[in-house]
């Protein structure tokens, strides 16, 4: 069998076909990586703020009074929020950024994936 090269052959023919040379492709990949690195700080900050908001909501749910059914319902909701916080802590900031850059996000599709 003959080895197949994945490197594009960029002579005059590539420019005519609209293909990018290997150097331009590598520059694009590096640019995306730089954007991912730049967004790490923003993603971490958003995660911290979201976790704080969920923690406040959990505290409010635990303090609510009412019948046994309402109290159990609030406890189940608080437990779901705690599990959501733990899941958020597992996710790396780069995964969040890459997901946001590669796909068009809407709430329903994210909920279906989880």
Structural descriptors:
mainly alpha; 5 helices; disordered N terminus
Low-pLDDT stretches are 1-9
Coarse shape: elongated
Strand residue content: under 5%
Which structural class is indicated by helix and strand composition? mainly alpha
Oligomer: single chain
Largest sheet: none
**Count of DSSP H/I helices:** 5
The percent of residues in helical segments reads over 70%
Task: Give the radius of gyration.
Answer: 23 Å
Query: Care to count the β-strands?
Result: 0
Order of helices and strands: HHHHH
Overall mean pLDDT = 79
| Separation of the first and last Cα atoms | 43 Å
GO biological process, one term: maturation of SSU-rRNA
Protein name: Serum response factor-binding protein 1-like isoform X6
InterPro entries: Bud22/SRFB1
């Amino acid at each position: 069998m003959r080895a197949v090269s994945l490197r594009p052959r960029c002579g005059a023919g590539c420019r005519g076909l609209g293909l990018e040379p290997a150097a331009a492709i590598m520059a694009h990949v590096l640019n995306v990586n730089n954007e991912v690195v730049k967004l790490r700080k923003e993603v971490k900050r958003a995660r911290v703020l979201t976790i704080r908001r969920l923690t406040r909501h959990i505290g409010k749910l635990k303090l609510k009074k009412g019948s046994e059914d309402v109290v159990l319902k609030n406890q189940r909701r608080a437990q779901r929020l705690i599990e959501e916080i733990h899941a958020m802590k597992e996710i790396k900031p780069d995964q969040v950024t890459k997901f946001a850059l590669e796909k068009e996000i809407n709430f329903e599709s994210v909920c279906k994936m989880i």
